[in-house]
Structure formats: structure tokens, C-alpha cells
# Entry
Amino acid sequence: MAETTKAPKTLNGKDTFAADYFKSDTDKQVWLGNPHIDNLVTVVLALGAEIWALKQRQIISEKLAEKKVFPTTAAIEAYKPTKAEEAEWDAERQSLAKRVYGWFARETASSAQAAK
Amino acid sequence: MNRRETLAIAPMLTALAIATHSTSAAAKTTDVKIDPYNQTPEQEARHAVRLPKLDQQSVQDFLSSFRAAIGKEFRPMRAVLEKSLAAKGLTMDADISPEAAWTTLMQHPQYAMSARLWMSTQQQMWANIYGIFHANAEAVLAELEKADTSGPGRLELNPDLNIPDYTRHEIHIQPGGYVGDPFAGAISHYGFKQFDRNVFNNDRMEHHLAMAQETPIPADGQVRRILDMGTGFGAFATSLKERFPEAEVWGIDVGAPMVRWAHYRAVKMNLDVNFAQRLAEDTKFPDGHFDVVVSYIMHHEVHPDVQEKIVAEAYRVLRPGGSFFPVDFVTKGNPRYMGFGDIMRKASIWQDHRYNNEVWSPSYRETDLPGLMRKVGFTDMKVSAKTGTAFQDVLGFKPA
# Structure
């Protein structure tokens, strides 16, 4: 049976309307043989997301500059991409995933061996 | 849109932006046609799902795109796995349990890595959204409190509700699940953008709007009251309100934090939708009260003993001629149901069940949902599978 977790009934003095729940144990799973390896995969994925966040700001800054708009924080935050730009950025993110993380899919002699 | 708003849906202080609408002379039901994939700027602003700050959204966007790339780039090719299975004396259609299928495939390093990547994106997605709302807990709770008593629609919470244990799980490993975190509705709302990414683009609620536009209605065309069971963050309910602006729309959910957020969102959209913390198996509505009852991906989160009760409750609260339209994954009773399938599919189902904490999903798949509907009295049944997705539409009418 899953572990019962007490939900906070108040937060900062306000009612939360939350109820007790059963905590999943997925966070405790180790799938790559060593918990540090599992954690490292999560860490490098998180770093990729942070890199994209920076790259996104850079892309928007360049777009603004092309329109002769000074890329202030407010201008960057308020930038509304076109649907074409959204599609372009999604493709770039997927490309980034393939370029940087494709190594995880590398087939090795040991992978064939381990499968036996 | 203004990213500085907690919920980046611009408050709509003006009347609904209506693309086109038609009114049946006989039924007097206004039926607004919205093209989910070609929304007006006003509609896009109303439906956009964006976190308050660009960096927060960019992190989620990366995880979303990465998730879409996993199946294409990281999951080992079927042929590779077949070769690996052959080395163990197994074929892809071997008669082994889903758990055994998962254990077997996880011995292949690339499969294990793809599973790890998938789960890590899921964990980070939740952790980031959870962090955003909890870091601003005081302000968000204050906004929710203010909205609780605001209109146009109303919110009904029930602190005395006996919350069934089957609903207390952290489904999709969402922190606290649907009942245990004060911001469950907000977390689910933004998280679903990532979930949906594997199947369709739902950046501007396109999927919910499309479902609402496709929702079948009674033959007489009268749609005065609509119920959305297991409404979650309320997007199906609000989409139905946009289609039928004159109808009284209700969304119910077991989770108080879910209906609070659903109500908050509807208030921000200036949509007159009512939300209540109630159970789908015991809605408390009068007999024959609704013209249309719907649900979206609720049934696979339900204990098998409760499925028939919910279907019977839908039947009870529908008026003669009313329609029931539950949308969820394909089940037994649908000609396209393929059971648990081959080893790859079984492993995927096990991963989803055991580690994505879809506790009731396997038993749901084995439930003959169309059969249950026929059993309680629904007629003129239609069962179909949505092209390119794992979803099925089941439609039934209460005899007129």
C-alpha cells in the first residue's frame, strides 16, 4: 500500500482545501544501475532546459533588434511569437535534443551484451 | 498576453468573441462555431497556456519538445529489441505479463535510458511548475480566495466530502495528486500542456475546444444544461460554455484544489460556468437534470468497482433523449481494442501504470465501457477511436 502523506490544511494562514494523499514511490526508483547515474541524467536534462531558456532570450533579443526595438527585459517578456516562429523553435529544441542527447542512444557492444 | 499575470489568460471584460454562430429555430439553442486551429487573437489570448515568466515557460517548452523527441530519437528500434529478445529465447508476442515485459526490456541499456529520460522530463516538469506556484503561495492563495466568491459562475466546495481512497493517488506522479496539493489545479493545467504534447498541440486549448465542438447533442437540439464529470482544471467545461453560451454548465471534481482553479480560470475568462466538489458516482443533481453529460480522461483514473456507478449516475441525471459522451482511452468493447498487445506495448503500459502512477489504467482498459453503458440503458450507441490517438469516443443516448 502506498504511503499516506498529510496534506497541509493551511498555508500562510489560508485554507488550502487539500486532503491527505498516497505518495508515489517513483522518485525512489533506480533504472540505470546506480542512483547517481539516474540523477546525472536528470541533471543534464535540467541543464539543457536552462541552456534553452538562455538561447530563447537571445533569439528574441535578436528578433527585437531586427525590428529596431531595444531588448529590455520587459520587451523580451512581452514578445509574442508568430505561429511560424513557435514551430521553428520547437524544431530547434528537438534538434538540440538530438544533437546533444543523441549520445544516450548510442548502440554499444556492451548494450548488445547486456541484453543477453 | 501579459506574462506577469499569475494566470496568463487575459481577463475578458468584453463579450465573447464569436467567430460565427447559428441558432436552431426549433430548439433555440445557440451553437457557436469556433475553429480551434484558427482562433482569433482574442480567442488565442483567452486560451493560451503560458507560465508567468519567459524563462519558466522556456524550461517547460524544452522539456515538452524533448519529450516529443524521445520516441523518435531515443527509444530503441523495434528490430533492435526483437534481436535482444531473440537472444533470450523470446519473441515480441511472447505471452508474458506487462511487468515481466517491462523487466525484460529494461535489461536493454538503450531502452532503460529512454525510460529514464521520459521519467526525468515528467519529474522535472512537475517539479518546476510546483516550484513556481509554491514560491508564490501567499499571493496565489490570496487570488484564489478572492475568486472563490467572484462570478460570473459559482464555486461550491465541500469540506465534509468523504474523499474515496481510490482518488488519493499521485496520478501522473503529480505532486500531491488531484486532492493533496493546494495548487493541484494550476499544476495540472500547466502540466497537461506537456502531457498533451505527445498527442496533439494544446497550446491554446485546441484539443478541448475541438472536443467541445464535436460533442454530440440530443436529437431535438436542446442544450440547456451540461455536466462535465471529473472536470479537472475545467477546460472541457469552459469550452462547452463557449460553444453553448446560453447553457448552464457544471464541472464537478473530487479535488477541491482542482475545482478552485477551474473556477478561478473561468472567472478570469469571464465565463459563467459553475464548479463543484462532488463525486461522479454521486453527483447530487436531480434526476433528468441535464441535456448533455461528458467526461474527458476521467474513467481511467477510476476504481473498477466504481465505473458502473458513474455510468448509471450519468444515465440518472440525463433527461430523456440526453447524450452521454465520455472521452478516454480505448477499452474492451471497442472493435479497435487490442488488449495489452506485444511486449513493447505491455512494457509501456506497465511503466505508465507502475511508475507514472496510473493506478487504475490497466483495469480500466479491461472494462467494457460501451457494454456498461448499454447495461444501464443507453441506446443508439456509437463507439469510435480517434485517428492517430489512443482515445475513443463513446456516445450513448437516454431513450427519449
Remarks:
- Strands of chain B lie at 20-23, 30-33, 155-156, 225-229, 248-253, 273-277, 290-296, 318-329, 379-385, 391-397.
- The mean pLDDT of chain B is 90.
- The longest strand of chain B covers residues 318-329.
- Chain B touches chain A through 69 residues (CB under 8 Å).
